[in-house]
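The methods section describes the discrete structure representation at length, but only in general terms. What matters is that the chain and its backbone geometry are given together, residue for residue. Nothing conveys this as quickly as seeing an actual entry. For illustration, here is how one protein appears when written out as sequence plus structure tokens:
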Amino acid sequence: MSTDSLIQLLTQALFVLVFIVSAARLIRRPRRVDGDIALFFGAAAVLIAEQELTAVLHVVPGALVNAASSSLIMALPYLLLRLVDDFFDVPTLLLRGAEVGLALAVVGLFLVGQPLPLALTLLYVLYFVGLQLYVAATFARESRRSSGVIRRRMHAAAAGSLCLGLAILMAGVQAALPGLADLWTLLSHLFALGSGLGYVLAFAPPPTLRRAWREPALRAFLARAARLPRLPSMSAIVAELERSAAESLGAPHAVIGLWDPTARALRYTSGEHTVQTAGDQMIGGRAFTTQRPIFAADAEREDPSHAEVYRQAGARAVLAAPITAGERRLGVLVVYAPRAPIFADDDLELVQFLANQAAVILESRMLMDQAARIRAREEASRLKEDFLSSAAHELQTPLTTLLAQAQLLRRRAERQPRAPADREGLERIVRETKRLAELVLDLLDTLRGDQATLLGPRESVDLVELAREACERHNTPRHPCNLTAAEPVVGVYDRRRLRQALDRLLDNAVKFSPEGGEVSLHVWREGDQARLSISDRGIGIPEADLPHLFDRYHRGENVDDRRFAGIGLGLLISRLIVEQHGGRIWATSALGVGSTFHIALPLQPATDERDSDGADQEPVGSPSA
């Protein structure tokens, strides 16, 4: 057998193979696309059968047979154009024009007879090749909008259509330049073989090849799966799963409906929009209820009650699979496309595999969220216990003093009604009452801070003057307070609250410097920010405590509760005051050397004063440490 004969035989086998596969699909599931594929390759199979039959019987075809065979050849580009319309929208005008051109070509073939004049032959070749080039360009253009298996199938269809057009072009060139007939014939047969290979890959790819095409997308999906449960939110996880499912199946869209057992409904979220459907509604609901994957080639026909929803979403073909972890029904994965040929029957296995992977990921996130809620409850319980312990200890001291002093004054009054007042005892009562009031105010300020209502009316404040007043209040021979400032630093703030924050920090600087030492207060301007720092030479802060220094009820591990009173709210209140001004506070320290607390506040023009109701303006971004 010659090489040319072998090429022809392989080409014929490929076209007949696609016809058999498409015919079997058409019998199993009648669809327009399978009908058009079977029609196109059926016409090719008839041409092959006619050619082989005449060769075996050694019969010379008559004029009618030649005209009919040529008509079938001229019908191929129109049938392929119909096939393109199954995948994508072909302009109606082009379809009607192709039909008119085909009708004229058939009439000419039967009226003129064989052989055709060269001019008419070239005109027929131009019609054939022109439609084939359009088909090839359409498949190539749409392939760029697809992914995965669909992109590869579109590439193959574009290559097959281009090769078929070139095969006919070589036949036309042979008619125009018969001197190189052998070359044109060989090229025509080679292009025909290329078209057969392309069409097999496009319209009847072997299952093993389809799995190989899917493998890169599946590998990428599985590689991302491990980190998906740790994304910031459940909605971010769902969005990533939807994107991965669409890429793996080569579809334009995929959505996940999560089951809400309270509402007994599936919730689909797209951006800011949420759609809720009953558990058994639409194709996704049917898959969820029956716990079986479903392939609907025509969603509007199979679920006419929701036809408008499918039409608006562009969901002509739908794949749906339940997302289930053990006995727990989590939701449903729905992948859809505007055209049925995008999917194949064996895609059900893939969509169910993706749904199973989604179930593992979603259940992992739910378990993580549940564990986080348990840890949060435990932490809240621990904080409450710590608070009750610290508050009871701190409240006990002034209450005990108040009670003892009051009892002492009562006994003196009973024994000596006319004795002068015990001024020292009264002073002690006043002092401890103030201490008790401060503890209660700290608790109230913490509550206001949590509700973002800590700040009051704002006004133009010179931070240098505010710091000077604070320094004077805390200046003692044992802890001299020194202020450093080169120029006024003016901004719009809540004066009372900033004074409170500075007093808290200076109180700490003094309290945690039991051996005495200078306290330094530095105020300066840095770009569009006001900067303050308070430094002491006290006991310092362990490095492990720095990240938690401003947390609720937190006290350093080197702080002796019996030596340094407090319940761990002072620094929290300072942080809340600074942050609600749009600023930031942080600390640096070394054990035994001292600590420095840094404050950065946004500077605003003095004319930008707040209304008397204390309404906040937009905060300025915090600086980096």
Q: What stands out?
A: Residues 605-625 have pLDDT under 50 and may be disordered. The first strand starts at residue 253 and ends at 260. The chain has four domains: 3-205, 227-367, 373-450, 459-602.
